[in-house]
Automatic annotation (TrEMBL):
<feature type="transmembrane region" description="Helical">
    <location>
        <begin position="84"/>
        <end position="101"/>
    </location>
</feature>
<dbReference type="Pfam" id="PF03134">
    <property type="entry name" value="TB2_DP1_HVA22"/>
</dbReference>
<keyword id="KW-1133">Transmembrane helix</keyword>
<feature type="transmembrane region" description="Helical">
    <location>
        <begin position="41"/>
        <end position="64"/>
    </location>
</feature>
<dbReference type="InterPro" id="IPR004345">
    <property type="entry name" value="TB2_DP1_HVA22"/>
</dbReference>
<comment type="similarity">
    <text>Belongs to the DP1 family.</text>
</comment>
<feature type="transmembrane region" description="Helical">
    <location>
        <begin position="107"/>
        <end position="124"/>
    </location>
</feature>
<keyword id="KW-0472">Membrane</keyword>
<dbReference type="GO" id="GO:0016020">
    <property type="term" value="C:membrane"/>
</dbReference>
<protein>
    <recommendedName>
        <fullName>Receptor expression-enhancing protein</fullName>
    </recommendedName>
</protein>
<keyword id="KW-0812">Transmembrane</keyword>
Length: 202
């Protein structure tokens, strides 16, 4: 019992450094360590049951890395730039794979819990999982297939340009046809109105 009390006191001492938790404790009259414990339990229940887990993983995968990338850009120290560039390469590679096997991932129990753990492992400076994955296989894979990837991107860009040109041409044709029909209708209406005026005059 004394050991548990000592651990709680240690946790509380760590949480005392976070002002927002003190405000929450003052407002709810609940000790901050229990607030953190309850929040953690709710968080993991939501993740394991997949309630809003996809959105949460997207936020975790983007917000913290994006902010740290911004800090790296503005910092004069250049070593941390590489870490976050590597993370974004790994994240993009992971996201592409996820798109193609999405229908299978739906059937994996607690997939989003594993994804969240993977993202944290990949991004945190303490673990540097993204750098491990990049150095282990991704760098060699990308270098080996760099020419194929460049060709695929070039073909996709050319196809997109052709499609865009065809759509623009078709839109121009439709617009021209519409304007021509509108002008013809206006002329007929005007001619019909003139005939009626002539008949009334007669």
């Amino acid at each position: 019992m004394d050991a548990l009390k000592a651990q709680l006191e240690g946790v509380r001492a760590s949480l005392d450094r976070i002002p927002i938790l003190q405000k929450a404790e003052d407002a709810t009259k609940v000790p901050k360590e229990f607030l953190v414990l309850g929040g953690g339990i709710i968080f993991f229940v939501l993740i394991f049951f997949g309630i809003g887990a996809g959105t949460l993983c997207g936020i975790v995968g983007f917000v913290y890395p994006a902010f740290k990338s911004f800090e790296s850009i503005e910092s004069k120290i250049r070593g941390d730039d590489t870490q976050w560039l590597i993370y974004w390469v790994v994240y993009a590679f992971f996201s592409i794979i996820e798109v193609f096997v999405d229908f299978l991932l739906y059937w994996i129990p607690f997939y989003y819990a594993f994804k969240l753990a993977f993202l944290l492992w990949a991004m945190l400076p303490q673990t540097k999982g993204a750098k491990f994955l990049y150095d282990s296989f991704l760098k060699d894979f990308l270098k080996k297939n760099e020419s194929k990837i460049d060709k695929a991107l070039h073909d996709a860009k050319r196809s997109a340009s052709v499609i865009a040109s065809e759509v623009a041409a078709a839109t121009a044709d439709v617009t021209a046809s519409g304007l021509s029909a509108a002008a013809e209708y206006a002329n007929k209406t005007k001619a019909s109105g003139t005939d009626k005026v002539d008949k009334k005059t007669d």
